[in-house]
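tool=predict chain=A
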Amino acid sequence: MSSYHTFSSVDESKDDHLHHIRASEKRNVFVLAVHYVLLRLGWIFKTETVIMPSFMDAVSGAGWLRGCLPVVNRSCSSLPPVFVAERVRNTREKKWALVISTCLMACPFIALSALWYYVHEHPPAWMAGLFLGCYALFFVVTGVNRLCYNTTQGKLIRANRRGRLLAIAGVLGSALSIMAVWLLLPRWLEIPDHYGYVFIFGMTGLGFILAGTVCIFIDEPVDKLAKVKIGWRHHIQEAWRIWSTDQDFRILAVAAMLFVMIQLAFPHFQLLGKQALAREGVDVQSHGFHLMIWVVSQNAAVGIFSLISGLIADRWGNRLAIRIQVFAVSLAPVGALLLGSGLIDDGVRWYGIVFFLLGLAPVTFSTLNNYVLELAVTSDHPRYVSTLSVCMAVPFCFSPLVGALLDHFGFPVVFTCITALIALGGAMTFWMSEPRHNESGPSRV
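tool=predict ok
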């Protein structure tokens, strides 16, 4: 009889846990949407395709240094989650990990803002190295933050509601951040001696602090988990186990690795655009308006594509959304070549279309993570998300090489190759399964 009551109490406890999650789902969708909106507000002022490479050019114009930005981005954001996945999994309330990691994302940019205030007129030779160091620290925390966000979302939001969260957050986040950029970025970029980066980096830090603070209002039931100390080798073994035993995950990972080739080209799109504008007699350095238009185009696309992708994902599954996204992104490098080459009359005036296509990239990363959440049971979410993150870091080893090849061969050869590789990633999606339609798949909350 005692055994019966023990199992019964366990089942009742689990039922109460699930009931709490269902009852709080609308509230948590709202809070996570606000979190994402504020995160976008901070992120738009450090856009990887425009602002960060432009600042690197202000410090040092070397192509290989610009090519280091994607390496730092992906390597630093991909490896740490593997080693903290178990800790996040064993955290009884995931929201506190999300609060702390989001607020910590602000620290490197607040430090850069303060430092640039003193050295902006005559940047020292070591500024490029220090900037890369802060950039690396930021993405270490960002990688952990993405793991915390996806784990929290996987725990609290049902699979067929995550597209709705992506749509709401993407549309509202883009609208707010575009208004902020339109009002502030041009005047900041046009301040002499690049002094405006003091305000740009400060605004980035403020957005992240607000985004972290709002997560306090997430309503989350406490997990009852036994904490077990695990050595670093176990984390590597778990990642390898997922790769070697889960065929669905392996196909997804290969498609994702080909897709992330677009990020290797991120820092160079703005340079191609600047060169095209220079041929038209436009001095981009004294007209921040052009850079602002590119930033606005990219972030407007985030909102539009978030809405479309979210609706597709909730209705037909994440696989179809990923397929459309990857093929669409593959058009960006070729589009940049055509619009920036001078072959099309007034093509450079429409160069913002390239950044509009690049706005699909962050939406696709979110969809990839939503897909991988459906491949695993809830308790395995941190391991699967972190393992996918590591897989997507592999291509970034070649990022400095891409910068060097651009310096040597020019844009046409390199951008055409990148387009072909991304399109191959789109083709891989035809071998992916749709876990939501697979009744034999893992049970999910």
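Residues 1-11, 439-445 have pLDDT under 50 and may be disordered. The two ends are 30 Å apart (CA to CA).
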